Amino acid sequence: MYIPAYRDCLCSSVLSRSADAYIGYLQQQQYCPLTIRAYLHGIEHFAGWVTKQRILLRDFNESLMRHFVTEHLPECRCPDPCQRSVTAVRPALAHLLHVLRMDGVLSGPQKLLPPKILGELEEFGHYLEFDCGLATATRISRRQWVGQFLVDQFGSSPIEIDRIHPPDIVRYMVQPTHRYRPGTLRLLGTSLRSYLRFRAVKFGNRVEALVAAVIPPAHWRLDTVPKYLTTEEVDRFLGTFDQQSVGGRRDYAMARCLLDLGLRGCEVAAIQLDDINWREGTLTIRHGKSHRSDVLPLAVPTGKAIVQYLRSARPPSTSRALFLRHHAPINTPITVEIVRGAIRRALNRCGLDRFTGPHVLRHTAAVRMRCAGASLKEVADVLRHRSLDTTMIYSKVDLPKLMTVAAPWPGGLS
Questions:
Q1: Which of 96, 99, 294, 407 has the fewest beta carbons closer than 10 A?
Q2: Are 188 and 180 in contact (CB under 8 A)?
Q3: Residue 110 confidence (pLDDT) above 60
Q4: Pick the residue with more confidence: 308 or 390?
Q5: pLDDT for 206-242, tens place per residue?
Q6: What CA dihedral angle connects 34, 37, 43 and 47, to 10 degrees?
C-alpha cells in the first residue's frame, strides 16, 4: 500500500485534515501508487495556491477548480517540485471535490442557474422522462438548451411565458454570437418546441405563435451518404485488438456487439448479464433511446467473443453489468466514454482515424445487411428505427440495386 509523505504546502493548508481521506479514497478505488502520487502532487500544488490566494475552504467549487486549471497552470510560476500536468491536476481536483462533499466538508455542486430556472428545468425534465419517454442523453441535451434560452430571456426574474413574443424567438435563434451549424440549430429548435409544448400541456399557455416562430434551418433529408467501413477495413479494424490481453478481449467483444448487432455505444455499456439468453441465442436491449425492450438474435461471432471475455478476461465482481472496468476504479461497470475511447483507439491503430467514434460501426452493420439482401424493413427492425424513413438513407449504398433503376445518361449509350 502506498504511504505518502505530505509536503509542507499541503500540511499547512486548509486541506491538511482531508489529506488522509483523499489518499484513502484513491486506494479504495484501487488506483495504482504512481497515479496516487501524481494526483497528490496536483493537490499539493493546488493547496499551496489557495493558501497564497487566501481562499477559504467554503469557497471551493467547480468554478474555482476550473480557474486553477485554465488560468493558473498555463502561467504558473510556483517553485518546483510542482505538478503542472493538466491531465493529472484536473482529475485530481475532481476527486478532491468528491471527497470533500462525501465527508460533509462541502455542500453539493454549485448551482450556476437561478433557482427559478432550476425548478423549471426539473419539471421540464420530469415531463420529458415520464410523459415523453425520452432517453437520458436527450433529456440532458434539451434541458441544457432550454436553460440557456430561459437565462437569456428572464435572467433571475420569474418565468412568464406571456412576456415572450415571436420576434424574441427569432432573435435568439439567429443572433450572430451563436454561429451554430444547421445540425446544432435543429437541436436548439427541437428543444425550444419541446419546452413550449410542455408549457402548453402543464400550464395552459398559448404558445401556438411561439412554436411557429421556431423556424427550422434549411435541411434536405437524405442528402448525405452514411459513412461505413469496407470489408477490407472491417478486417483491419478487428485485427487491431490484442486478444491475448484482458483489455483487448473486452474491447473486441464490445466491437463485435457494435459491428454485428448495430448497437449504439450507450447500449453496449448498459448490457447486463441477465440480458443474454444463451439457450435461445438472443440479446435483450433494455436501455436504448426509448423505454421499450427489444430482443435481437445474438450473432455467433458476437457470442463467441463475449464467451471468451467472460471466461478469461472479466474480473470477479458482484456487478451484473457485462462489461467492467479494468483500471481504477476497477470492477465497476464501464461507461459509454470507455466504449467510444476503445473504438477510437482501434480505428487510429489501423489508419482509419478519419472516423472518430463507434457510430460508424452501426452504419457498417446496416450497410452489410443491406448489401447481403436484407430489406429496408429488416434493417429497420435490427436497428430499432421507429420510422422506416430513418432507414431510407441506407438505400443509397446498395449499388447493384441502384444500377437496375438508374436512368441512362443523356446522349450516352443506353
A1: 407
A2: yes
A3: no
A4: 308
A5: 999 999 999 888 766 666 778 899 999 999 999 999 9
A6: -160
284 and 200 in a common domain = no
Domain boundary among 179, 213, 247: 213
**Residue 270: its pLDDT value, please?**
92
pTM, 2 dp: 0.70
**3-state per-residue secondary structure call for the chain:** CCCCCCCHHHHCCCCHHHHHHHHHHHHHCCCCHHHHHHHHHHHHHHHHHHHHHCCCHHHCCHHHHHHHHHHHHHHCCCCCCCCCCHHHHHHHHHHHHHHHHHCCCCCCCCCCCCHHHHHHHHHHHHHHHHHCCCCHHHHHHHHHHHHHHHHHHHCCCCCCHHHCCHHHHHHHHHCCCCCCCHHHHHHHHHHHHHHHHHHHHHHCCCCHHHHHHCCCCCCCCCCCCCCCCCHHHHHHHHCCCCCCCHHHHHHHHHHHHHHHHCCCHHHHHCCEHHHEECCCCEEEECCCCCCCCEEEECCHHHHHHHHHHHHHCCCCCCCCECCECCCCCCCCECCHHHHHHHHHHHHHHCCCCCCCCCHHHHHHHHHHHHHCCCCHHHHHHHHCCCCHHHHHHHHHHCHHHHHHHCCCCCCCCC
Q: Please count the structural domains in the chain.
A: 3
What value does the mean pLDDT take over residues 262-270? 93
Looking up cell 465497476, which residue turns up? Answer: 332
Average pLDDT over residues 313-325: 93
- Per the structure, the complete domain to which residue 268 belongs is given by 231-402
Model confidence pLDDT, tens digit, residues 86-95: 999 999 999 9
Q: How far apart are CA 362 and CA 257, in angstroms?
A: 9
